[in-house]
Design brief:
Pfam families: Peptidase_C26 (PF07722). By secondary structure, this protein is α/β, with parallel strands linked by helices. It has 8 helices and 13 strands. The strands form 3 sheets. Strands 4-1-5-6-13-12-11-8-9 form a 9-stranded mixed beta sheet, sandwiched between helices. A two-stranded antiparallel ribbon has the order 2-3. It has a two-stranded antiparallel ribbon with strand order 7-10. Helix 3 crosses helix 4. It is globular, with a radius of gyration of 17 Å. The mean pLDDT is 96.
Length: 245
Amino acid sequence: MRPIIGVACTKMYFPKNDLDQFFYVGSGYVNGIARSGGTPLILPLLTIQDAPFREMIESLDGLILSGGEDPAPHLYGEDPLQGLGDINYERDITELEIIKIALELKKPILGICRGMQILNVACGGTLIQDIPSQVPGALQHAQRGSRQYGAHKITLQPGFVADALGKTEVLVNTSHHQAVKDIAPGFKVTGCAADGVIEAMESLDGLHVGVQWHPERMWAHDDDMLKIAEAFVARVKQLKLQATK
């Protein structure tokens, strides 16, 4: 019984076509789910009135929130700073709605990069808008080139990621300039870089997990990193089985 894992996507225009918008998500997310025994399902970023978000989330056993643009700062009570990057407010409001429903329905969530950030915002946390200008002595968190390979180490505390990887220190890739600042109520920090930037978090009940790096870019060649996908799918499958008893 393969659990159905939804992957939240975003929109884009193709070159020379500024009329039609297209939904997209990196293939690494869906390939990792499939390799780990899940059935991936891409969730469209609907912006129509009365979009059937509840029906969409009800059809899933778990949810992955993918990477992308910066969340809008006013969503966590801040004004935009000079270092803020591109935002996609339509995506923000859509993902906040599907996260709210997923939390209500107790669906497991794995947030990756932006996905971890928007999960933190949805649950009442805040973000560092721009690491280079706000974190003194920060590491390079937006590595240049070879983004499918590790760039800096992080230290893991006990929790989902440490259990999945079987390690307390791991080399991760890095492709972000924002990070979690104040962690949301009901969550705990489970991983940090040497400069103090939060790299992993999870809810106190272990149902919702966020990682700041991009394991989906690594797990094509790194079987150790694929263990994150395998552990998430296994957890979702276990909860699905328990719900049917």
